[in-house]
Amino acid sequence: MGEHIIIPIPIYYLISTMTVKTKLVAFDMDGTLIQGRLIEVISRKFNLTDKVSLIQSDPSLLGYQKTRLIASVLKGIKEKEIVDSIDSIPIMHNADKIVSWFRKNGYKTGIITDSYSIAAQVVAKKLDLDFCSANELIIKDGSVTGEIEMPLGWEKIGCLCNISICKRFHLTHYAKKYGVHIKDTIAIGDTRGDICMIKQAGLGIAFMPKDQDIIRQSKNIIHNPDLIEVLNYM
């Protein structure tokens, strides 16, 4: 009876042929990935704080209606001024480290924000993110026209958020795009506008929450302005 010969398989071969499960993490931008809010910086810079605050505090307006009106207030501002404004806001503490950790562990990383794509793309590039969803502020001849293109994903899925960027819609979109099961997604945000994606994701985290609505509807809350604390929930 012949002997069975066992040929060891090199460990590097086993590692190289293992299938790494793709996962996904979506960050809000203002107050989450950056230490401030773009519209507040622009408003102060161009003396628009009162006008913008009046729109934001109007209870008769839905979220997307506020976004449209605020865009009209920005008419005439130079594209470069918006880029300079987003550049002036510091990245959140350890944002680069947490993004790096996620990428090393098989996550697609990105921004879902109801701010503007011209700004979100700057932040996405700084942090080397995979995707970015935001409103399209219309620029012509280097200046804001006052018009804006909004995806309004809530109309397509029946979400009750009624904001310009339905974050639940975009989270689901990117999960499908990258072949990620929704239970393998993470959503991180700081205001009521993030609630629909935080509740939809496999893991939702309220980071430095700014209102009682998101506090009430979030199981996981970080009160310290340091994104590395996300690892406490992993």
From TrEMBL:
UniProt keyword annotations, A-Z: Amino-acid biosynthesis, Hydrolase, Magnesium, Metal-binding, Serine biosynthesis
GO biological process, one term: L-serine biosynthetic process
Pfam family, one: HAD
Names of the cofactor(s): Mg(2+)
One MF term in the entry's GO annotations: magnesium ion binding
Pathway in which this enzyme or protein is active: Amino-acid biosynthesis; L-serine biosynthesis; L-serine from 3-phospho-D-glycerate: step 3/3
Entry GO CC: cytoplasm
Keyword Hydrolase among UniProt keywords: yes
EC number(s) from the headed UniProt entry: 3.1.3.3
This protein's record includes keyword DNA damage: no
Stored NCBIfam families: HAD-SF-IB (TIGR01488)
Protein name: phosphoserine phosphatase
Source organism of the structure: Candidatus Nitrosocosmicus oleophilus
Gene expressing this chain: serB_2
